[in-house]
Every structure is written in structure tokens, then in C-alpha cells.
Amino acid sequence: MAELTLDAVTKVFQEGDGSEVVAVDDVNIDIGDGEFLVLVGPSGCGKSTTLRMIAGLETISSGEIRLGGSRLNEKQPAERDIAMVFQSYALYPHMTVRQNMSFGLEESTDLDDDTIRETVTDAATTMGIENLLDRKPGELSGGQQQRVALGRAIVRDPEVFLMDEPLSNLDAKLRAGMRTEIQRLQEDLDVTTVYVTHDQTEAMTMGDRIAVLDDGELMQVGSPLELYHRPANQFVAGFIGDPSMNFFDVSHEGGTLVGDGFEYPLSSDVASDLGETTDCVLGVRPEDVSLVESATDAHDFRTTVEVVEPMGNENNVYLSFGDEPSDEEPDQRFVATVGGLRRVERDSTVVARIPEDSVHLFDAATGDALH
Ligand code: ATP
Predict the structure, then answer these.
(1) At what angle do helices 113-126 and 142-155 cross, to 10 degrees?
(2) Structural domains for the chain
(3) Whose CA is nearest to atom 19 of ligand 1?
(4) Model ipTM over 0.90
(5) pLDDT tens-digit map of 200-238
(6) Most buried of 63, 151, 267, 331, CB within 10 angstroms?
(7) Which family is it part of (predicted)?
(8) Candidate of 22, 24, 47, 212 to mutate for ligand 1, largest count of ligand atoms within 8 Å of Cβ
(9) Residue 47 in 3-state DSSP?
């Protein structure tokens, strides 16, 4: 069984001047056998360092990494039964595709030449590159090189795949195609996979579960829908979703949230989740804000259209509270994603509905989700 466990894993880099950088801080994740886990977060949050510790390319400062229950910390990369695919593909330019794919097997196994040849041909067929085996990497497109890099990982039949932003050098269309292909491959091979990306769309579409990192700390691990519907804190809420969730600084006064230019009454159930907290952040996803004909509910607000961003089948409509267009930049601009057929004019007044069953509430001081 190839469950991969990260147990209080920490990485501290020592800088030349004696200072320390905590790149990964006490991270705990259990990745199930055959699971596809996506590690996502902004640049510098510690994704690559985490992956490199799993691969054995970076030492672990404290904590333990286990594969199938046995400790990996002291094992050399070649002893780990883990294959890694890099963003840069890392192919040897002077070798043919076949040589690139055979190399690892020749080095680390005692398979005979015929078996290696057959294994490589099979993997090349799986990746649809069997007609490219005699070419060199310089004679291949980016997408073809990425297939070779993936083919080289699968010939080793590893217990774990690690992928570090493998699609980021491909153009948008090719990237979308390869995403599906990697998912299918992972499902067919049923290999435990950790996939690093900074792209939340890639994370949402590919992962069985997603682990969100920020500044070396694990913010939340969960299925894409859990992260979308029940973010553990404001960071995850803002990171998952495009356009990002709207946030309003509010103070909670006796069952009403008082914001800049609006008041939002809460039902008693929701208000009770806030307890004694007064400084809160109200969050609502753009797709949960709707534009309605007239204000009939306490959660309907007169707003002014600041900008309309047509997206084809949808429009992102940027709104500010109040019905007077202003020359100044509004403090509380927020965005509603609405159907593209609806005509919305800039500077017009519209009624925006922010339904209570769609709002998220966070503690302003800690960022933790309260509701
Ligand atoms: P990106 O998406 O930009 O690749 P990342 O999430 O993969 O970022 P890491 O490369 O893991 O982030 O880096 C995490 C932190 O550790 C950063 O602050 C980085 O500057 C620091 N770091 C990484 N490698 C080293 C190193 N060899 N020495 C010192 N600091 C390092």
C-alpha cells in the first residue's frame, strides 16, 4: 500500500547571514493509496520544498515522511520508489526519447535490455509518443516533451508520482488537454500522486483533495467542494474561486452587520455563530450575488454599476453601494457574476441581492471561519 504520510514536517533553511527561513512549518497530511492530492498556494508558500522533501531532494529539518508506514527521511531519492516530473521536463538533450525513458531503468534496475525496450515502448504507447522514440528533445514541441517526461516517470512503475507544475510551460489550450490526460493516466495507473500548482483552477479540476498552503503553513485539506463551500478561513476562501470571493469589513452589532455604506441583518442562527465577536469579515462569492428587479428583501441593496467585464456567457459586474455614481474610487467595490444575456449599463443603478444562505463570516482578527 502506498499511503504517504507527512507528520509534522518542517523545513528551515539557514541563510548565509545566519538568519533562518521557515519554508514549511509543521505540515500534517495523510495521502491515501491511489489518491490524487493537489498542493496549491501562492508563490513562495513552500509547495516545491514540500515536494522535494518527499522526493528526497531536500533534507527534512523535523518531522517524518512515511510511505506505506515506513520512514523515508534517511532514504536516498533512488531508494524511495518515487518518480518526479518537473516543470522544466528535465530531459537530457543529447539523448533520444527512448534513451531518456530507458535511462532510469538501466541505472536503477537489473532488467535485461529486451524487457527495458518493451517497457519503454509500452509507456510511449500509453503517452501516444511511440512514433517519437528516435527523436531528440530539441526536435519536439513543449507538449511532446512533457509527454516524454511523464512517460519516463511511468516506466519506473513507482509507488508515488510527484509533479511540480508540470503544465506551466504549455499554452492554455494544451494545458487544458494535458490536465485531463494526466487525470486519466493517474486513474488508470492508480498511483498515489502529489501535484503542485499555484493555479487554483488546476487544483479544483484535478484533485481528489486539495491541500492549501500559505507561508509554509497548511491552511486546509479537503475535497474541491469542501474548500469551495466550507473554507476554514479567509485565506482559503479568497484563494479558491475566480473571481475571488468578495470581502467586507463589518462590525457585528446586535444581530446586524454594519459595513461601510450598508447594513446586513442576520437571522438568529447565523448571529449566534458569531458569539461575542464584533470585528468580522463578511464574504460572498460573485456567483452568489444576483441582480434583481426591485428591493423586496433586507438582503437586497441599491448599488451603482462601476464596470462591466463581459466574459462571453457571463458578465462580471463591479458594483458599489448606493445609487449615485461617484468620481472617487469607492471603498467597497464588489463583483457579481451574472448571465451574459442580461444588459447592465455602466453608471446605472441596480439592486443586488446577497442571500444570507450564501454568506461566509470570518473573525477579522484571526481570519478563521465563524459561519
Ligand atoms: P513557487 O510557486 O514560486 O515555486 P513555492 O511555493 O514552491 O513557490 P518554495 O520554492 O518551496 O515555494 O519556497 C518556500 C520558501 O522557502 C520561500 O520563501 C523561498 O524563498 C525559501 N527557499 C526555498 N529554497 C530555499 C533555499 N535553498 N535556501 C533558502 N531559502 C529557500
Answers:
(1) 130
(2) 4-235 (3.40.50.300), 246-363 (2.40.50.140)
(3) 44
(4) yes
(5) 999 999 999 999 999 999 999 999 999 999 999 999 999
(6) 151
(7) Belongs to the ABC transporter superfamily. Carbohydrate uptake transporter-1 (CUT1) (TC 3.A.1.1) family.
(8) 47
(9) helix
